Amino acid sequence: MVIHYPLLFEPVFKKMIWGSESWDITCRPEEMGIIKNGSATGLTFRAYIDQDPTGVLGTRITGDFPLLVKIIDARDTLSVQVHPPDDYSTDPGKSEMWYIITPPTDGELIIGLAPNATSQIENHLNRLAVKTGDIINIPAGLVHALTPGAKIAEVQQNSDTTYRIYDYNRVGPDGKPRQLHIEDALAVADFANTIPKTTVPGLCIENDNCIKTYTIANKYFGIIKYEISGKINETSNPEAFSIFTCVEGEAEINGVKIQTEQSIFIPANLGEYTIKPGKNCKLLKAFVPNIKTDFIEPLLKNNHTYEEIIKNLAIEIDSPA
Known about the structure:
Blueprint: E1 9-10, E2 12-16, E3 19-25, E4 27-28, E5 31-32, E6 34-35, H1 45-51, H2 53-57, E7 67-74, E8 80-82, E9 96-102, E10 108-113, E11 125-129, E12 135-138, E13 144-145, E14 151-157, E15 163-166, H3 182-188, E16 203-207, E17 210-217, E18 222-228, E19 232-235, E20 242-248, E21 250-253, E22 256-259, E23 263-266, E24 272-277, E25 281-287, H4 291-301, H5 306-312, E26 314-315
Parallel strand pairs: 17-26
Antiparallel strand pairs: 1-6, 2-3, 3-7, 4-5, 7-14, 8-15, 9-12, 9-14, 10-11, 10-13, 16-17, 17-18, 18-25, 19-24, 20-23, 20-25, 21-22, 21-24
């Protein structure tokens, strides 16, 4: 019998030409998470899932593990890049989001294209002022780049498909210019400027000891920020696993401690669990949502309107139910 409990993983570290990445929750053949706590210590994430796929992932999830959670530390500017949608090629698409742990040195990130941009993308980049705690939605098609000094928590589709548009004439470890993907990038980039290039303010629901800010909801992931001042009790959702990433302070979930820039996996069939916060505890909860029941209905029940939801969230919503 599989014992379900909050899981920690050995992070997969990647040294990059511009800085470093820590892949904290990953289930990929070349970047496989290894459990580092409890009775499953030493087991690969894939092997743990295979013991009880529905109990671990939930009834909503079929196929491969759908998410990837990273901490990214940019000491230099990343390449100006864009990701494709799922239907562009045989490679999986990639939508992602960023939480700003530390803002860039100059306070601005590259997010989207300036109005009237042409194919000379490097001359038409939109710069967005950001601060600690800001959340940015980066769906497929939105041109973007981290800038020096930025540290972020990133939640994304489980994909590594990236098209570089511009890379400041840098060379790779082999001494050769890094590959660009101009044709593919031009095919998928949002030249029409239809994708918002702003931070996501979200809407709050405040209960005893916790303020939950609902921010992003699409078919790939939902994001809720928790600001916790005292112990709270929750119950896992048998329809979907969840991941908590500590973006400030520290916390303890069923006795398992996480600190800033660490993530913890909550299996779908865990059941009841308790979060005990340290000082200034802020967590990001990521999961595969039912947008209606996990976002729209709770917000409406707490006196937010459809108009407020559409204005303040990055949410896929067709029409009022």
